[in-house]
Amino acid sequence: MLVVMKAQATAEEIQAVCDHIEVMGYRPHPMPGAQRTAIGITGNQGEVDRGNLEEMSGVAEVIRVSKAYKLASRDVKEEDTIIHFAGTDATIGGRNLAIVAGPCSIESREQAFAIAEKVAASGAQFFRGGAYKPRTSPYAFQGLGLDALRIMAEIRDTFGLRIITEALDNESLDLVAEWADVVQIGARNMQNFSLLKRAGRLRMPVLLKRGMSATLDEFLMAAEYIMSEGNYEVILCERGVRTFADHTRNTLDLSIVPAVQKHSHLPILVDPSHGTGKRDQVLPMARGAVAVGADGLMIEVHHQPEKALSDGPQSIYPEQFARMMDEIEQIAPIVHRELPRGIHVETAATKPHDSSIR
Amino acid sequence: MLVVMKAQATAEEIQAVCDHIEVMGYRPHPMPGAQRTAIGITGNQGEVDRGNLEEMSGVAEVIRVSKAYKLASRDVKEEDTIIHFAGTDATIGGRNLAIVAGPCSIESREQAFAIAEKVAASGAQFFRGGAYKPRTSPYAFQGLGLDALRIMAEIRDTFGLRIITEALDNESLDLVAEWADVVQIGARNMQNFSLLKRAGRLRMPVLLKRGMSATLDEFLMAAEYIMSEGNYEVILCERGVRTFADHTRNTLDLSIVPAVQKHSHLPILVDPSHGTGKRDQVLPMARGAVAVGADGLMIEVHHQPEKALSDGPQSIYPEQFARMMDEIEQIAPIVHRELPRGIHVETAATKPHDSSIR
Amino acid sequence: MLVVMKAQATAEEIQAVCDHIEVMGYRPHPMPGAQRTAIGITGNQGEVDRGNLEEMSGVAEVIRVSKAYKLASRDVKEEDTIIHFAGTDATIGGRNLAIVAGPCSIESREQAFAIAEKVAASGAQFFRGGAYKPRTSPYAFQGLGLDALRIMAEIRDTFGLRIITEALDNESLDLVAEWADVVQIGARNMQNFSLLKRAGRLRMPVLLKRGMSATLDEFLMAAEYIMSEGNYEVILCERGVRTFADHTRNTLDLSIVPAVQKHSHLPILVDPSHGTGKRDQVLPMARGAVAVGADGLMIEVHHQPEKALSDGPQSIYPEQFARMMDEIEQIAPIVHRELPRGIHVETAATKPHDSSIR
Amino acid sequence: MLVVMKAQATAEEIQAVCDHIEVMGYRPHPMPGAQRTAIGITGNQGEVDRGNLEEMSGVAEVIRVSKAYKLASRDVKEEDTIIHFAGTDATIGGRNLAIVAGPCSIESREQAFAIAEKVAASGAQFFRGGAYKPRTSPYAFQGLGLDALRIMAEIRDTFGLRIITEALDNESLDLVAEWADVVQIGARNMQNFSLLKRAGRLRMPVLLKRGMSATLDEFLMAAEYIMSEGNYEVILCERGVRTFADHTRNTLDLSIVPAVQKHSHLPILVDPSHGTGKRDQVLPMARGAVAVGADGLMIEVHHQPEKALSDGPQSIYPEQFARMMDEIEQIAPIVHRELPRGIHVETAATKPHDSSIR
């Protein structure tokens, strides 16, 4: 259910409707738009009783949302969600392409800084690097953990790059939330509903990767899990799906981009590194992703991929990353985008968000 | 790496080898077999240094295990793993077919008892019922939680049935471990490595469902995660995979049964209810599962499936369950199995295992 | 559209309705049943005009068939289709399990006879052997062609086995129709609609294999292509589909068996040899196929599989075939089937059917 | 096997090597390159005996080709294959993007001309329109056949557009070869090896669509079937594959484009219309295809898609096609391509190639 407020509704009227929804036993989700605010209602099993919502002051109309996902749906919020990073000009969603780059795993301070310097110089605004790695084998390198988080915090201080890294469970979620700017939930955890709900109690952006065999609806429902807890800053990310095809490690499904954009207001990035598993596929598929209209890219870059502790064969060299940036910069205007080169930090590089679990 | 002890090796010799492995910085996993004990070694990154293991007293040979999974592999343990339930004659693995039956979700004490009585009467030894439900939508029925666990404990006391139910996260894992006999890890959590490791620190059986797009290797590696923490009582369960086919909800891949049995000593059940999503597919596919050699079945039964809060269309009626039991009883001897009807509780129905996390 | 005749309708009344349907510009397909005859109507684009069909003598009712497939549907013919082989007691469909066995390719008279003798001794009623092989590579062995057909005709004369072999195109279809008892259309040709129509103009059984990524509807629509030309003796065959799973060459989808039997009256066999691509999977999956209710099996047997020119790794040894027959003989009564051992040829072994294209 | 001739080898030396290969019992396939000619050898079962080829005059070296596909491989021909259309400046492959546009089916002269005029005005060089339609149902519209071919020949005369249309079987192949400029083999016939070989005996371009579940190797092997008969003008076309994903009709696998270009010299187009089955996906995926580096596009355009006899929901409007052309024209230079607008016919618009079967 969705309460659409009148354009001229006051903050008091909006608050009054929210309060009333709580009294009814549901949860209000105010979604401010360019024209007017809409208030999503969740917390119901089955049909919401409309009560006298329609008669309240400032209410334009009350609409049933037919999709299984509500808060993630364009029915509830027509404008694209744009995620801002306080103290900087960086955004995810909207006109600017967001470029996330870095190694699969943080292996050492030297390695991380060497790569960060390169990707910053080429104009990335976000740095990625695994601190906690979901590995198929219990005997494989599992990441440096907190040490990696500390290294990435230094990288933020040094280069201004905002940090995105994956959380695997409650413990790492709390730490990642404390140290990073965006918490990543990986493909294998896309339906770890407990972790999604906990991420939903954060008040900071969450990047949610599509599961290896997730349908569009399941993907948006996973986002809905996060949003239903009050965290509306969800970034989706396509990273390839499982099919019979064997020329790439996964089959990168670029058609999910326009499909998401039709049904949801959330931004969607594309990860051609995991999506193909092959270095020589990354540049062409990165171009393709921007051309179909993705809101940005997530790219594995390594200065010495042959020595990487994980995913070396899919990591591109810094020179390739620089070329990729040049190519997508040219494609950007064709899809009404811009590629901002780098990030401008306006204030002291302190971690701006509130990472406590609500 | 695997240390194979001589047939006549003493308990002291085995202990000395284990101690030595720990001194080397690794973790020993003694696996007693019918003829002799083997000791798996984990905890290494890369190659294990053999040291002077081969010269130790009682050691027959030291073997490199080439598979990515070690403890789950038949190379490490040739005999089938049979899981016993203390104080009863119930087993999973080995000659007896293990039959797990019950509703998708525990909805009420009345519903649970009505179904438990029926499936016990038809000869099930295990009762399943969801207390914590992994639901695609955050707004769907999420299970009765602890109340459901309490109801199932009563069912154990009343009918002797051993209880299998799913844990979704740390909190529910601890509770399920406390109240149930087998902790289930669902398909969506098959690569929730943090949860797998925590389940590995239990000393009670874990039923691990195959992920929707998991390969055989990934499935066995997920089992390896549990085993690498010292919990060797892992039961695998095929429940259908994602394909293009649309006549069933998932495609039940019965060929995984002989494939698992070739490569691993772990028992494997088949769940034709989730595996097909259709009531009229359950009986034929249950027969098929037993005929290919599965160690047992996991079946959703509901006395009023049209009123079920979840998965009604795939739940069979108690009468169908009774017919299924008759049919598979006849197939069992052809694959050198027996179908024990019901469970015999030899001692007071107390929960026998130690559910504390090691 | 379907015209259901009254139980007591005379042959003249049936003929009159068929004539009238032709006058209306459509094609009548009389389908005699145990109780009464139904007449399918095809040849229409869009809705059939009922005209005065309902008022004709002997007509019980006129029914719209809502499925895309008509003649293949149980709506049109409720009783299972049973295909008889004149002069013998062999059938496909109905109570008896039909067992088709033989090598992937006919390589020589000696090889074919050696295998035929063995499978006949174990009780197969049908012999399979490739004369024309659909090979992924143009440089691979393409089959002995007409020589292979002649060898198989000798096998029919010697052992009584009825012959099933694949046709790839018009030329081989005509030859196979002349020499064999059942024309096989392979998985790669399941949507070769031109070949299907030509097979539909034969008046002899056609075995249609499921395409590698065919849905149930597409599979039945392919059968409909054959039937729409007047050939109602279609035998379906599941042989595995393409998925991400890599422990078998294809994923054998046994759930298609009950799905076909629910929606269609056509018999369905299962081919676990192509369906798994692995020798040690053939016996378990053959048992599984019979247990789910398949009308029979198609099995690759080779006396020297290591020397086979094609598909050696999936061919079982004659001794394994004998064991398989023993196992499925025991499963058969549980699913209300019988396994007749061998074929009884009542009359001189001449090729009984009319292979001319209508 | 591949014989690489010296750069300065004469035509006589090349001919002498070809003759010698024939004497050896194999088939020579001379492949002229920018620097030097290579001669592929096929017709062997197993290893080719090198004989004294290496000692022949003009021979630089003799190389074993390890891939299953030989003539389609870049090992045999390093330069991209560019297909020219005599009497025009149109090409497929090379620097120019080739744009094929038109309706799914030719429905009438008026419809075809209305669409052709529009797509020609927007700069397409090729016109597509189904004359013979592979329809899942035998009761669906099957195409206008020869009448459609005649209409398209008129379109060639009127607008200069070269004609691409699908052949389903021998009969339609002969007719399409006679009337069209490019013979299309559809996805369902990608492994109709008999049809492939017959298309290989033509001396005119063949457009080969990827099968719904074809791997890269199978796709290139299907091209090899055509090439092994001496027809080297093969154009590949990606049109989506079968997966579990349900937000598009098929999953368009753009990663096949760089994969083909790495392993083969053949040009590859992308068909986002069939590849997605949704009108609002066509433009973004067309942009994506050009950005990943495809050699061109195949697009369904209809002036009244809501009235189309087939595939209306995936056909775009002429205005959308015009916008698409503008967009990809801007992307082209980024991937070192050009979009020529329209086709220049230099000589009288007669059908230039020899359509007789060799």
Report what the structure shows.
4 copies of one chain form a homotetramer. In chain A, strand 5 and strand 6 (91-92) form a beta hairpin. The radius of gyration of chain A is 20 Å and the shape is globular. With 358 residues, the first copy, chain A, is of the alpha/beta class. The mean pLDDT of chain A is 93. In chain A, helix 2 (109-122) packs parallel to helix 10 and helix 9 (279-292) packs parallel to helix 10 (318-331). Chain A has helices at 11-23, 109-122, 146-159, 170-179, 193-200, 216-227, 256-263, 272-276, 279-292, 318-331, and strands spanning 2-5, 27-32, 37-42, 59-63, 83-84, 91-92, 98-102, 126-128, 162-166, 182-185, 206-209, 234-238, 268-270, 296-300. The longest helix of chain A is centred in the N-terminal third of the chain and has 14 residues, at 109-122. The first copy, chain A, has 2 domains: 2-63, Alpha-Beta Plaits (2-Layer Sandwich), CATH 3.30.70; 83-335, TIM Barrel. Chain A has an 8-stranded parallel beta barrel, surrounded by 7 helices. Helices cover 31% and strands 16% of the residues of chain A. Chain A starts with a strand and ends in a 27-residue tail after the last helix. Chain A binds chain D through residues 213, 215-216, 241, 243-248, 251-259, 262, 275-276, 280-281, 284-285, 287-293, 327, 330-331, 334-335, and chain D through 213, 215-216, 241, 243-248, 251-259, 262, 275-276, 280-281, 284-285, 287-293, 327, 330-331, 334-335.
